[in-house]
Amino acid sequence: MEAGPAPNGSTGQKNMSPVDMLRIKQQMSNQCFEMAVQLNAGKNKRSCSTSEAERDLPDYVTELEEVKTNYFNSTLALHRMQMWHAIGEKLKQNDAEADALKAVSNRCMGMCSHIQQIQKESRDLQNEITDVQKKRLEMKRLTHEKMKEIEELMSKKEHPDIEKYKAVLEKGLANMEKYKKITIMTQNVLRGILLACKVHWLDDPKLRDLVMTLEEFPVLD
Amino acid sequence: MSLLKPFSKLPCLNSANILLVESDEEFQQSLADALVDETDFTVNVRLAKSLPLPVENEESRPRIDLVVFIINLTSELSFQSTEASLKYLDPGYFLGKVCFMATNARNASVPTERLDAVRKLAASLHCPLLFAEDQTPDGVANATERLLTILKVAAGLVPMATPLYLSNLTRCTVPLDIDQPSFD
């Protein structure tokens, strides 16, 4: 059951400002538009399934959105132009408000140039920072390379020489052993001869030098 | 059958008429009190338990801009009464002049099937589904705000927006996995 109507606010003749009247006019035009749409809806009747309609719907909505956005942007642009025109007109009349406007705009200009200057400084500083970072990166790279080279050398040192010259080294060592043995034998023979001859080797300098090179040569009297 | 028709009467100036339909008749009153506090324009609130509306008031009733069905999710009767009332509404209303409001959605005793059923109903009719918390004044205030937004568009008070356009943006959608069993 329907209860009595809730408190009905009176739309009596309170002071209607132009803004209110414009609002009411907007409302009326909206309502008329709705009713016109309703009337037109019955005219172009074509049968299609709901799924078809669902598929077409987003396209129409997008179209609507685009038109609305364009309209909104144009309105914004129009408002901007109107504002600037009004400000321009005001500035032309040289009264107190125009002076205030001029003062404000001068302050704005001052701040803008200040901003520009600070932006330039920060940009220079940023560039410096980038340069330093680049140098550091370069240093790092060089260090890295050097380290790699060192590692390579350290690992290389042992193998290749031994690999290549092993055979030759061995042969040389064997030769050296052989000649050492020959020398020792010769020395022994010489020692034997000198001993047997009972020569006074201390008197002759040349002989003395020779004997010094032999080991453990007994001093004869 | 007396259908409630959206365009059978002349509209009012600088005001909006809203019809709250609720079979329990609990939330209606507090919502109505909050709605009439709006000052920018006049809000006329009509309350009803279900449709069809009584014939006696036919003449004095103004054109209804927005019909709100309040469904209490904890009672099956509320849902069934709403479904029955839908038949008495002219199809012209479903182009953005109908709204569903569900209360007690956080209650643990609500079976998920009912919530899904409400969602499917709102989605099939292309209407917005609002959830409201009716126990605290904050909840009532929130619900009022949201209803007022939709009401303003339905009454034509928002330039460049028609209820049909708004319904495209606010309509309830049903997630694809609504028929899957949920975690319980």
Strand and helix layout:
The complex is a heterodimer of chains A (221) and B (184).
Chain A: H1 18-41, H2 50-92, H3 96-156, H4 158-197, H5 205-213
Chain B: E1 15-22, H1 27-35, E2 42-48, E3 66-72, H2 76-86, E4 98-103, H3 112-124, E5 129-132, H4 137-154, H5 163-170
Parallel strand pairs in B: 1-2, 1-3, 3-4, 4-5
Give an account of the 3D structure.
The complex is a heterodimer of chains A (221) and B (184). Chain A has 5 helices and no strands. Chain A is an all-alpha fold. Among the domains of chain A are: 24-92; 161-212. The N and C termini of chain A lie far apart (158 Å). With 184 residues, chain B is α/β, with parallel strands linked by helices. The radius of gyration of chain B is 16 Å and the shape is globular. The chains are: A mainly alpha (221), B alpha/beta (184). The A-B interface holds A 1-3, 5-11, 20, 23-24, 26-28, 30-31, 33-35, 37-38, 57, 61, 64, 68, 71 and B 6-7, 11-15, 32, 36, 42-49, 53-54, 57, 60, 92, 155-160, 162-165, 168. Chain B: InterPro entries: Centromere_Cenp-M (IPR020987). Chain B: Keywords: Centromere, Chromosome, Nucleus. Chain B: It holds the Pfam family CENP-M.
